[in-house]
Amino acid sequence: MSSVWDDLDLLLDSPSSLTVNSTVHGTIKEKPGFNPGEDAAALRKAIEGIGTTEKTLIDILTQRSNAQRQLICKAYQDATGRTLCDDLEGDTRGDLEGILVALITPPAKFDCQEFIGAIKVHNAFSF
């Protein structure tokens, strides 16, 4: 018999099952003329080499819809063989790393991670 934890872990391990169609619209609108390959190449250039061009990372990832960010992640992995998440975690630190990784995480996966984290904190303070 599976527990809620097993179910949540399964969701986290299978992000393609986390796609949700919604009629809710956020404040970030889709970028007209969007090209995931161009954005992936710009992110790659910003990450590789000496130092990271944080402005490029911020400009691209905060000005694309979540659906567009997911396409960028796929294009990035197709081009580099690495995940954008792994590269961001390797080249950024602290709050900037946290927000950039959150921006590229599919919404349902992010919600699951936050829920698991909240439960762990709650259990740590239970007597």
What distinguishing features does this structure have?
single chain; 127 residues; mainly alpha; Annexin V, domain 1; 65% helix; globular
- Mean pLDDT metric: 85
Low-confidence stretches: none
CATH homologous superfamily placement: Annexin
Q: Remind me, CATH topology?
A: Annexin V, domain 1
Indicate the proportion of strand residues.
under 5%
| General form | globular
Number of domains: 1
Question: Share of helix among residues?
Answer: 55-70%
Whole-angstrom Rg: 16 Å
* Count of discrete alpha- or pi-helical segments spanning 4 or more residues: 7
Provide the succession of SSEs: HHHHHHH
Major β-sheet, in short? none
CATH architecture: Orthogonal Bundle
**How far is the N terminus from the C terminus?**
27 Å
Structural class: mainly alpha
CATH domain class name: Mainly Alpha
SS elements, strand count = 0
Please provide a brief summary of the model:
The protein has helices spanning about 5-15, 35-45, 55-60, 65-80, 85-90, 95-105, 105-125. By secondary structure, the chain is mainly alpha-helical.
Describe the structure.
By secondary structure, the protein is mainly alpha-helical. It has a single domain (4-14, 33-124), classed as Annexin (Annexin V, domain 1). The protein has helices at 4-13, 36-47, 54-62, 66-80, 84-91, 94-104, 107-124. α2 runs antiparallel to α3, α2 crosses α4 and α5 (84-91) packs antiparallel against α6 (94-104). It is globular and about 45 Å long. The protein starts with a helix and ends with a helix.
